[in-house]
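Bench notes, afternoon.
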Amino acid sequence: SAKAAASHTGALTGEDAIYDAAFRRAGIIRVDEIAAFFNCSEALAMQPRPTGPNLVIITNAGGPGVMATDALISKGGKLAPLSEETHSALKEALPPYRRVSNPIDIGEDATTERFQEVVGICIKDENVDGLIVIYSPQGASDAVATAKVVSELSKKTQKTILTSWMGEEDVGEARNLLMRNSVPTYYTPEQAISTFMYMYEYAQNLDLLYETPEELPDHSRYIPREIIQTFLLCPFRNITHDDRDILTEPESKKLLELYDIPTAKSYVAKTAGDASNIASRIGFPVVMKILSSQILHKTDAGGVALNIKSESEVREHFERIVNRAKEHNPHAVIEGVTVQPMISKPGYELIIGSKKDPVFGPVILFGMGGVGVELFKDVSIGFPPLDQVLVRRMMEDTQIYKLLVGYRNMPKANLKLVEEILVRFSRLIADFPEIKEADINPLFVNENEAIALDARILIDRSLFFSEEPSKPYQHLIIRPYPKRYETRWNMRDGRYVLIRPVKPEDEPLILELFESFSEDTMRYRFFKVIKEMPHDFLIRFCNIDYDREIGIVAELTENGRKRLIGVVGLYIEPNKKRAEFAVAVGDPWQRHGLGSKLMDYIIEIGKDKEIEAIYGEMMRENYKVIKLLEKKGFIIEHRRGENSKASLKLS
């Protein structure tokens, strides 16, 4: 469509691809067949999730082993590299005429004991993330006996074990035995491979689910939004005056530079003489590009000339570029031609872009760039804000990543720089809901540098000049970690405490805090004594949607050791007008004013979120907390036979 053609990103980020990315970010895997849905669900219920893609294939039939390997490689999996210890042990376990390699063909004459020994050796190898055992009804091994030993070995390891017992009636009893012992088995090796890869993808997606980007990355320079708006006000006014919603290339690059994204400096030439003078000043060779808000894809219009080496060539190409642009779009307003240095070093061309989806809001795109970007469509999609973990996952999901890490005689790209640029670009998109679409194409990268050679940004003018105040990040589907809620405070004994929102990685510290509770403190917080905190509960406690709830913890660092000593939570109702609070301080740190400070702070946060009232329930005998809340203006309601309720109006 015309709208999608406004940027390469718009053309590449189709609805289905965005849903795929959303599923991954939410910890969901998407399967292609009903059978795969049931296979995957069953395997995840029976077996541990794989911690990596490295798989060992053990088979007593060469053909199925080769086909399983082909299926694994085609789906992005890897054959596990066997350690020296494993290689030596297998050499002793297998007949001398068997070559030790992965897939491990143990021979059609393999006995049940050989299956048992080989599987036992492989599950001890740290390089192995999972095993697939393929049984073909032949030779000296018994199907049921072999299934029994594999089942017993599965109980002794945390590694994923899947099986393929090939055949029908001859292996039916063995297949039932495997399933009864929580060892999934399949009719074909390809089904087992497919299930393993879905399980690995699910494990990766769960890692993404628990990844919470920082609001303000430490390595990124933070520039107040007001400064950027003032700096760019003139270009935006030009947009309004010119009835356009696209920033020119120089305007787009100015915005990128404010976020420390390196760009190739572009100079605007109105005439051929101007272009010649600019080229002489910056040095040859140069690149020349048409400058017109009505011509979005300059190459398609013949509006790009590369590797220009003399003043005469500059003058010649200026006229040629302008004439071609007019032929391409007779109604286009030609503002001139841009001149910039030509980068002739070997390297890679990438694309980084963004598009505002009507359902999911802004999405970030990364992939192979250059003129073939829409032809090869080698891209991946993520949701801002991004951190380096999320960025690296996006990069790994593309084919060009295999080149970027170094391939044959091709040099490695500086992936660290690419990561930083992606994080900064996502920061820009998170800061400005007014950006409708954006492209950096190409982003040139080699082993030493990364630089944006061209850029295009589309603006939603109605949002930029709207007089209605907008809440930070309300255009994002994923709220970033609210770093603005971090503060330092002194306890009564002078010790410094960092008061901050809870993070996913706080799970072990939260568990330690709960373990410091006496039975009374535990009962006052949870209305019962919990002897052991379930892992699922701790995950939910630490992995929160900062838009719907907020957990604030007090962090104390002593002798280089961090520990959490108090926590307060605010759980917002769906109408976002009321919220429930709960507060607790570890017993060793009570009577230092921390509980009072946490309540004051959660009240401030409630006001910041425009909540009208907060309330909480407490046991009637929790006199200390009731007295504290009364001092802070809470209305305490003592209900006969029930817990007391405290409420406070914030507006």
